[in-house]
Amino acid sequence: MYTEKVMEHFQNPRNVGVIEDANGIGEVGNPKCGDIMKIYIKVEDNIVTDIKFKTFGCASAIASSSMATELVKGKTLEEAWRLSNDAVAEALDGLPPVKMHCSLLAEGAIHMAINDYRIKIGLEPWEEDKAHRAVHEEHAH
Amino acid sequence: MSRKVYLDNAATTGTDPEVLETLLPYFNEYFGNPSSIYSFAGKNRKAVEYAREQVARVLNAEVSEIFFTSGGTEADNWALKGAAFKQGEKRGHIITTAIEHHAILHSAEFLEKTGYKVTYLPVNDKGMVSAAQVEQAMTPETFLVSVMFANNEIGTIQPVRKIASLCRSKGVLFHTDAVQAVGHVPIDVKEMGMDMLSLSAHKFRGPKGVGVLFIRKGVRIENLLHGGAQEKGRRATTENVPGIVGLGKAIELASQKMEKESARQSELRDMLIKGLGEKIPEAVLNGAEGTQRLPNNVNMSFIGVEGETLLLDLDAAGISASTGSACSSGSLDPSHVLMAIGLDHEHAHGSLRMTLGDTTTRDDIDYVIETLPGIISRRRQMSPLWEKHISGTKEV
Fold this sequence. Notes:
- The structure holds 2 protein chains of 2 kinds.
- By secondary structure, chain A is of the alpha+beta class.
- Chain A has a single domain (4-140), classed as Alpha-Beta Complex (Sufe protein. Chain: A).
- Chain A contains 6 helices and 3 strands.
- The longest helix of chain A has 21 residues, at 100-120.
- Chain B has 2 domains: 5-12 and 258-395, Alpha-Beta Complex (Aspartate Aminotransferase, domain 1); 17-254, Aspartate Aminotransferase, domain 2 (3-Layer(aba) Sandwich).
- Chain B contains 15 helices and 12 strands.
- Chain B has helices at 17-23, 25-28, 39-59, 72-86, 102-113, 131-137, 160-170, 189-192, 230-233, 241-279, 307-316, 336-340, 345-349, 362-381, 384-395, and strands spanning 5-6, 66-69, 93-97, 117-121, 142-146, 173-177, 196-200, 211-215, 283-285, 297-302, 319-320, 351-355.
- In chain B, the strands form 3 sheets. In chain B, strands 2-8-7-6-5-3-4 form a 7-stranded mixed sheet, with helices on both faces.
- Chain B starts with a strand and ends with a helix.
- The interface between A and B is medium-sized, with 25 and 26 residues.
């Protein structure tokens, strides 16, 4: 039911753990749904220099977390924010339709960690839609 | 990894080689239709009737009370709908439990939609209902009580004898879904006072696609399948002769081995529960203990780990098991049985069912006890739920 990529990331997840001096933390999901993802980011000069996660959930939740952290590491905050759940699923060579929500978790947790960082340094948090626009505008300049 | 340990015998079992050998000739050597007149078909007719005798002997039923079906699901559907349709316009009330198999629950829900009333009795934290609960739920309209003999997920054995005798005294029909129990624990339909009982061959090393509904003499229910005059006009369709022959042989073998196997498997079961309980922090057993539990069922929850993750990690180590977690089912809710015994979502999502069979060895159990703790510990280390749980426990 899972692609080789999903199984590979599930069995050997990258970037598992905690960043003690993280400057952004995001956590989404709840035990009722059966998945929880917690993301720690370390941002330096607007770049996600380090990222770690802990995930409770099924194989697709763990593989999505692992893949998302790989895709985001070393990217600017704007690039990290733009990472979509579709991109995570695609990078995993697809997820079963009933498991697509697992990739949403990763996107949500990264957004939350980024906003946590922005708030900490005194910036407005990005709103889901507006933020997308803001990011695009920033890039246009 | 060449090691293979199959611990999902409640899902299905492999057909016993002796059973297979017995049923194979009925595919192409003796392939006649039991309803045909010529002597060649007589062999098949006799084979079906012999299988009926084998089943009747094991259950202590009359031969005329055994009706072959396509499996446990059909037997359950037939018992509920057949009894309900016999009520005609007056409809009426059915009592069952919250932890039945979906073959019962979904049949009951279907009947509700067509005007019947259904009570789904709650169970206690071990998954048990009582005769007193059944009695309390009875109304003058109650015509049928259906309580499973033993639960497929947590292995809890219900007090069916007491419930059957209560029903008999109240003039209410009693059906039991004994799919998980037949071949594993002794059943005597006469002595226990059953009116109807469902069983399925592939749960005791018979072939898939064949089962039985025992209908006590004098119990009147409507037919579900209309057509030819097979099964004394109660269930139309050409008999699944190889399947029926296999079922007969399998139930006979299971019954011969039962005493020895149930003792052996109970011991392995308890060894597994104890071994995992000692090696894994906060392992919780779901369901009852000792003789109130099926000899082959282990169901445990490991908070902080999700069931599907466990199954895949176990699979990578060659171990086949099952879970009540939502993630493995495609639905968003965890098992209705685990919720009914009062588990919180954290424990329900972290449940693991391992069901033993007559091919399970002591080595297999040792291997699981060696393998599982490492898997749990590794996944817990990457689980924010475990982290939270641990810090919560420390704070308290």
